[in-house]
C-alpha cells in the first residue's frame, strides 16, 4: 500500500482510540531499518508509524554534510516508493525536535509539504513532533500554536510534548524526578491554547514517569493511570461527557514497561508508542553475533584473505533486518495492533 494519506492516518488513529490499541512508532536511521520496520508491520498485519529523529535525519544526511532535511526527505521519498510493496498503511513522522532545531528541521520540512499540498499532492510526512519540554509551558504552547496552524493547513498532525520525559534522546535530557508527571492543570492549559481538535489535530506526549533509553526496574515509577486524570480534568473543564477521552496520547520512553503498564496506558487513550532502544538492540545483536562467530572471515587475519561471503554487508544485514522485524512484531502484539490493518 502507499504511504498513508492524511485521511487514512486520521482513520488509523481513530480506530486505535476506539479499539483501545496503539501503533508502534519505530525510529529508523537507514533503508535497512526502514525495511525491517515495514516487514515487521506487514508480518503482524498491523498498520504503523515510522519516524525519524533529528539525530537519525542527520545520520541519513551523510557524515560529509550531516544535513537533517536532506536526510529526512531522502528517506521519506524512498519510503513512499518501497512501502507500496508492503500490504499495510504506514505513516511517516518526525520525532523529537527541540527549539534550537526547529529552523533546521521541522519548519523546512513543513515548507516542503506546504508546497506539495498547494500542488494538490499529499504532504511528505503525515505528522511532526515539536518537543518543547525544555521550555516553560507558556513558551512551549506559544510555539505549538504557530506550528499547529501550519500543520493544519498542510494536512499534517502535530505532536507536542508539554512536560519532560526523563533520560536522554538526541541531546535532549531531563533528570528523573517529580517533574516527570504532567498535571491536570498542564493539560487544561494545553487544551486552552491548542483546542481539542477545532484548531487542528494534535497528539499529546504527556509525562507519567517516562524515561528515554534503558533503565532497570525500580529506577522509574510509571503511572499510566495519570492519563485518566488528565482526560477527566479537561473533559470537566470543557463540558465533555464523563468518561470521554479528549486527548490522543503518545507513550514515550516505554522500554522496559510491564504488560500491565502498557494495557493501562491503552485503556486511557494512548494511540502511539515510541520504540527505539529495543529495536536498535534487536538490529545490532545478530550483527555482533555474526562478527564474533566469523572473526577470521570478516577480517583478513595473519595475512589471509578472509571470506567475502561473511563480510558481505548483505549477509549480516539480512540477519539484522530479520531480528528487528521480529521485535516490531512483538511490539504490535504488546500494543494490540496486530491484525487490525485497514483493508
Automatic annotation (TrEMBL):
Cofactor binding, note field: Binds 2 Zn(2+) ions per subunit. One is catalytic and the other provides a structural contribution.
Record's catalysed reaction(s): beta-D-fructose 1,6-bisphosphate = D-glyceraldehyde 3-phosphate + dihydroxyacetone phosphate
Q: In which pathway does it act?
A: Carbohydrate degradation; glycolysis; D-glyceraldehyde 3-phosphate and glycerone phosphate from D-glucose: step 4/4
Print the keywords alphabetically: Glycolysis, Lyase, Metal-binding, Zinc
Residue sites binding Zn(2+) 2 per the record: 131, 161
Q: Does the keyword Lyase apply?
A: yes
Judged by the first EC level, this protein's enzyme class is lyase
**Which EC number applies?**
4.1.2.13
A GO cellular-component term linked to this record: cytosol
Report residues binding dihydroxyacetone phosphate: 213, 253-255, 274-277
The keyword Lipoprotein appears for this protein: no
Q: Which residues bind Zn(2+) 1?
A: 96, 212, 252
What Pfam families does the entry give? F_bP_aldolase (PF01116)
Look up the record and name the cofactor or cofactors this protein needs: Zn(2+)
What are the recorded Gene Ontology BP terms?
glycolytic process
Q: Which Gene3D superfamilies does the UniProt record give?
A: Aldolase class I
Q: Which residues form the active site?
A: 95 (proton donor)
Q: Which GO terms describe its molecular function?
A: fructose-bisphosphate aldolase activity; zinc ion binding
Coiled-coil region list: none
Similarity-based family: Belongs to the class II fructose-bisphosphate aldolase family.
Read off the NCBIfam families from this record.
cbbA, FruBisAldo_II_A, PRK09197.1
- Outline what the protein does: Catalyzes the aldol condensation of dihydroxyacetone phosphate (DHAP or glycerone-phosphate) with glyceraldehyde 3-phosphate (G3P) to form fructose 1,6-bisphosphate (FBP) in gluconeogenesis and the reverse reaction in glycolysis.
**Record-given protein name:** Fructose-bisphosphate aldolase
Amino acid at each position: 500500500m502507499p504511504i498513508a494519506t492524511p485521511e487514512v492516518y486520521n482513520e488509523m488513529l481513530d480506530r486505535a482510540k476506539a479499539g483501545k490499541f496503539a501503533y508502534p512508532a519505530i525510529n529508523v536511521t537507514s533503508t535497512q531499518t526502514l525495511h525491517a520496520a515495514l516487514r515487521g508491520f506487514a508480518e503482524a498485519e498491523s498498520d504503523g508509524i515510522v519516524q525519524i529523529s533529528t539525530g537519525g535525519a542527520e545520520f541519513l544526511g551523510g557524515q560529509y554534510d550531516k544535513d537533517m532535511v536532506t536526510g529526512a526527505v531522502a528517506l521519506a521519498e524512498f519510503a513512499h516508493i518501497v512501502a507500496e510493496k508492503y500490504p499495510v498503511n504506514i505513516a511517516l513522522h518526525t520525532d523529537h525536535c527541540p527549539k534550537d532545531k526547529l529552523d533546521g528541521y521541522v519548519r523546512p520540512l513543513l515548507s516542503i509539504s506546504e508546497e506539495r499540498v498547494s500542488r494538490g499532492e499529499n504532504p511528505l510526512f503525515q505528522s511532526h513532533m515539536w518537543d518543547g519540554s525544555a521550555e516553560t509551558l507558556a513558551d512551549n504552547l506559544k510555539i505549538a500554536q504557530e506550528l499547529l496552524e501550519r500543520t493544519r493547513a498542510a494536512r499534517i498532525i502535530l505532536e507536542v510534548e508539554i512536560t519532560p520525559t526523563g533520560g536522554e534522546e538526541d541531546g535532549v535530557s531531563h533528570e528523573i524526578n517529580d517533574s516527570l508527571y504532567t498535571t491536570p492543570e498542564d493539560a487544561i492549559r494545553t487544551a486552552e491554547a491548542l483546542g481539542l481538535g477545532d484548531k487542528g489535530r494534535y497528539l499529546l506526549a504527556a509525562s507519567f514517569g517516562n524515561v528515554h533509553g534503558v533503565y532497570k526496574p525500580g529506577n522509574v515509577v510509571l503511572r499510566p493511570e495519570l492519563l485518566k486524570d488528565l482526560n477527566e480534568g479537561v473533559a470537566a473543564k470543557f463540558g465533555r461527557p464523563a468518561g470521554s477521552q479528549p486527548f490522543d496520547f503518545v507513550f514515550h520512553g516505554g522500554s522496559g514497561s510491564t504488560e500491565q503498564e502498557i494495557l493501562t496506558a491503552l485503556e486511557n487513550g494512548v494511540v502511539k508508542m515510541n520504540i527505539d532502544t529495543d529495536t536498535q538492540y534487536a538490529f545490532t545483536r545478530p550483527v555482533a553475533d555474526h562478527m564474533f562467530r566469523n572473526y577470521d572471515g570478516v577480517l583478513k587475519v595473519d595475512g589471509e584473505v578472509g571470506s567475502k561471503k561473511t563480510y558481505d554487508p548483505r549477509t549480516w544485514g539480512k540477519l539484522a533486518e530479520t531480528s528487528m522485524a521480529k521485535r516490531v512484531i512483538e511490539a504490535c502484539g504488546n500494543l494490540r495492533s496486530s491484525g487490525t490493518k485497514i483493508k
